[in-house]
Amino acid sequence: MRIDSTTAPAATRPTAVDEPALRQAAQEFEAAFLAEMLKPMGAASARQSFGGGIGEEQYASFMLEAQAKAMVQQGGIGLSESIFEALKARAEAAGGGE
User: Fold this and answer.
1) Residue 9 lies in a domain
2) DSSP label at 78?
3) Does 14 fall in a domain?
4) Which domain holds residue 73?
5) CB of 94 within 8 A of CB of 16?
6) Residue 2 domain flag
7) pLDDT at position 58, please?
8) What is the pLDDT of residues 3-35, one digit of tens each?
């Protein structure tokens, strides 16, 4: 009996690469990277005058994450595109694409 892609079990059939999920993962990675790079620049430190006090210090990480995500949405530093291409190539090499 001959087995082709229409009769093969789902586990052995090649599936299409989920490009939106790969792009999302790459963008999230770039945002996390940018947030970490913003920390030493003092973006999360409280201001001396008109600061929000302890509340500002506690929520500074959320502000960094939001700023980093906004940077990625505006094009970022190009890291997510490189990561996306590498993830896509790896998924296709693993049999995820046709």
Assistant:
1) no
2) S
3) no
4) 19-93
5) no
6) no
7) 78
8) 555 554 555 545 678 999 999 999 999 999 999
**Total of domains in the chain:** 1
pLDDT score, position 56: 76
Residue 42 lies in a domain: yes
For 38-71, give the DSSP string: HGGGTTTSPPSSS--THHHHHTHHHHHHHHHHHH
Of residues 62, 73, 75, the one with CA closest to residue 35: 62
Burial class (CB in 10 A: 0-12, 13-18, 19+), 12: exposed
- 24-82 residue pLDDT tens: 999 999 999 999 999 888 766 656 656 667 777 778 888 899 999 999 999 999 999 99
Q: How far is CA 83 from each of CA 23, 72, 95, rounded to the nearest angstrom?
A: 8, 13, 19
